[in-house]
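TICKET: design request
STATUS: open
ATTACHED STRUCTURE:
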């Protein structure tokens, strides 16, 4: 019995020794796992910090600069430079869209200036006492008359525009007007007033003084004759 008891004790001791060895190995593995998790967590923090830095440098910063550029454009500064439009990613496409908008905004600004200037000139032309008559040099059809010219001729603008002198005046008056047009074509400009007596179908015989100019030329798409007319009927020195 003593020998069997000693054998059982040896077996039990061996089992305890194996269990202790296994427990020590598990402890070592746990320490290794703790260090591994610690290093992994530190690496994740470093990666997240780098990611934030990259996003700030590559995305947030350029977006802020593009936003500032759009604000400057909205405030009327059309000469500002649009940053990052040479990039090939979404930021570059956004910057390019802003740059294209700036290119479009510039011409629109100039167009508004031209429209205001045109409106100013039309207001002036409509309210001067001289009659302003504009013809197409090729067809000799009237393309514009101001208010003073309407009153001198005695017809409305709608009745005059698009027609020739032969469609509006008696034959003798129409031939005189056409002769003056041919003289203008040869002389280019007629800055001195020429006094003529014409038969107006509405207002009767009138004495008019006319200065004539050419705008453009035969080789231009827009070639116009501009006549500035004064009604001198009843004035004493009509030949001056």
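STATUS: resolved
RESOLUTION: sequence designed for all positions
ATTACHED SEQUENCE:
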């Amino acid at each position: 019995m003593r020998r069997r008891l000693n054998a059982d004790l040896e077996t039990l001791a061996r089992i305890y020794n194996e269990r202790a060895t296994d427990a020590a190995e598990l402890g070592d593995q746990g320490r290794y796992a703790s260090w591994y998790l610690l290093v992994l967590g530190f690496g994740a923090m470093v990666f997240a910090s780098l990611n934030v830095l990259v996003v700030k440098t590559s995305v947030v910063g350029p977006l802020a600069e593009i936003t500032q550029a759009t604000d400057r454009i909205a405030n009327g500064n059309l000469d500002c430079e649009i940053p990052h439009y040479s990039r090939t990613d979404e930021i570059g496409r956004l910057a390019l869209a802003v740059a294209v908008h700036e290119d479009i905004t510039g011409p629109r600004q100039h167009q508004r200036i031209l429209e205001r200037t045109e409106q100013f000139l039309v207001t002036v032309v409509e309210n001067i006492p001289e009659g302003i008559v504009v013809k197409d040099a090729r067809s000799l059809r009237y393309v514009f008359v101001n208010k003073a010219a309407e009153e001198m001729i005695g017809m409305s603008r709608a009745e005059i525009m698009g027609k020739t002198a032969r469609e509006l005046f008696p034959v003798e008056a129409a031939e005189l007007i056409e002769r003056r047009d041919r003289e203008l074509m040869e002389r280019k400009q007629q800055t001195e007033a020429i006094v003529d007596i014409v038969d107006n179908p509405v207002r009767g015989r009138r004495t008019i003084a006319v200065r004539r100019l050419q705008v453009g030329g035969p080789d231009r798409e827009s070639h116009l004759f501009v006549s500035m007319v004064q009604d001198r009927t009843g004035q004493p020195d009509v030949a001056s």
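CLOSING REMARK: The longest helix spans residues 2-74. The chain has two domains: 1-127, 129-231.
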